[in-house]
Each structure stands twice: as structure tokens, then as C-alpha cells.
Amino acid sequence: MVDSVKSAISRMETVKMRRADAAGSQASASAPKPSGKTDSDSVELKSAEMAVAARDMASVAPVDMDKVNRIKSAIKEGNYPIDIDKISDALMDAYREMKT
């Protein structure tokens, strides 16, 4: 699952670079840039990039839905094994990590 998230992020970065290159070439071909550029331009660009990235990630969800459905049905039937010691250890590890 982590690998699929990493690959989705790298795909988004590649798409973002291509769009930035295309936007840069279009901007240089058009009229000269005004000298009083504001920061709001870059905020809008970042917002647009985030929207595109969110849409790309939503289209390729890194979740195995078959596995999720099997776990859901096992929980409903009461057949899902729960290791309380493992859960408590993981919670304590997360607490210790968060504290440091």
C-alpha cells in the first residue's frame, strides 16, 4: 500500500512538472510579464495544482477493496481476530513517537 502511494505521488510530481514546463513555455510566448507580480498568483497556482493532485489521487485509490470487503464481512460475522496486545503496543509506540 505504501508503494502504491509513493508511485501515485511520483506520478503527480511528474504531471506537475510537465504542466509547469508547458505553462512556462506558454507564458514566455505571450506578452511580457508585468513587473508588479503579486503573491496571489502563486497561491492560485498552488491551489490549482492541489486540486489536480487530489483528483489524480482519488482516481487511483491505493486501497485493495476486495481485502476491505473481506475484513468487513469477517467483522460482521464475528470472525475477525483482534490481538489486543498488538494494538496496545502499536498505540504506545505511536504515543512515544509523537511525544519525542
Give an overview in words.
By secondary structure, this protein is mostly helical. The chain folds into two domains: 1-32 and 39-63, no CATH class; 64-100, no CATH class. Helix content is 78%, strand content 0%. The longest helix is centred in the N-terminal third of the chain and has 28 residues, at 2-29. The chain is elongated, with a radius of gyration of 22 Å. The mean pLDDT is 75.
What is the topology?
Blueprint lengths: L1 H28 L9 H21 L5 H13 L6 H16 L1
The SSE string, one letter per element, is: HHHH
Poorly predicted runs: none
Shape: elongated
Instruction: Tell me how many strands there are.
Output: 0
Task: Please report which band the strand proportion falls in: under 5%, 5-15%, 15-25%, 25-35%, 35-45% or over 45%.
Answer: under 5%
Count of DSSP helices? 4
Based on helices, strands and strand pairing, what is the structural class?
A: mainly alpha
Give the CA-CA distance, first to last residue: 26 Å
Average pLDDT taken over every residue: 75
Radius of gyration, in Å, reads 22 Å
Percent helix, as a range, is over 70%
Tally of individual domains: 2
**Sheet with the most strands, sense and barrel status:** none
Summarize this, please?
78% of the residues lie in helices and 0% in strands. With 100 residues, the protein is mostly helical.
Descriptive key words:
4 helices, 78% helix, mainly alpha, elongated
